[in-house]
Amino acid sequence: xxxxxxxxxxxxxxxxxxxxxxxxxxxxxxxxxxxxxxxxxxxxxxxxxxxxxxxxxxxxxxxxxxxxxxxxxxxxxxxxxxxxxxxxxxxxxxxxxxxxxxxxxxxxxxxxxxxxxxxxxxxxxxxxxxxxxxxxxxxxxxxxxxxxxxxxxxxxxxxxxxxxxxxxxxxxxxxxxxxxxxxxxxxxxxxxxxxxxxxxxxxxxxxxxxxxxxxxxxxxxxxxxxxxxxxxxxxxxxxxxxxxxxxxxxxxxxxxxxxxxxxxxxxxxxxxxxxxxxxxxxxxxxxxxxxxxxxxxxxx
Length: 300
Ligand SMILES: [Zn+2]
Fold this sequence. Notes:
Layout: H1 2-19, H2 30-42, E1 63-73, H3 85-99, E2 104-115, H4 117-120, H5 127-136, E3 144-149, E4 157-159, H6 170-174, E5 177-180, H7 196-205, H8 215-218, H9 270-284
Parallel strand pairs: 1-2, 1-3, 3-5
Antiparallel strand pairs: 4-5
């Protein structure tokens, strides 16, 4: 009896693992959480107000982000990780569309395709991952590098959060986002193939947390994303996991930083836009010069 119960639980977990978004970016660095707490305390922004008029700079902001996309594949077939330049362009277009409301746009500076099984399948934290990124990474800390590859761990993607880094350190080279190749627009990951995994992961790169980070009482430290106890899956309209007067609003299931299916994800909140620029100004701009890191390309 006990055995059957354990078996049933195992099967349930296995099924869940296949049917919900899996992002590996669960643990923001302590310094980033502390910074988010500080920004939240300082914020003049209130839900419902114009985010672009809430902070010191009242002018609508825009920011162009240099983007470098690296496709790393096992062999040159679509089911082994290879994507075409047209696929890259489609993913790039989705990123620009999804970030349009924030004023962020991306400038595609580099596209690389590399056949290397060890790199394509490298798990997070492995030597192969570090070697791959030491070779392929382009630009400075304000340059976004996205690696589109098979991964291996069952994840749709993962990304680094911004933090204080030392130029040329392993942390610097590892900075960027990894995205499952089949999550690109038209890819094979049913329910997650509109390219919004990249949008979600890049949100972490900007310093945004999951909407369910910290659950009802902890929250994601953004004022206008309603509290959410756990990740959403599918598109559960009306879901409300944190009830009571202290938790107004339904779960933010349409927010790019939740776990809903791609068709369900449609927005960043105004408060997230404010936070994105706060983190950008604090971490990425001061450490962003690419001049001193370009020489790294000679290591290839
Ligand atoms: Zn995530």
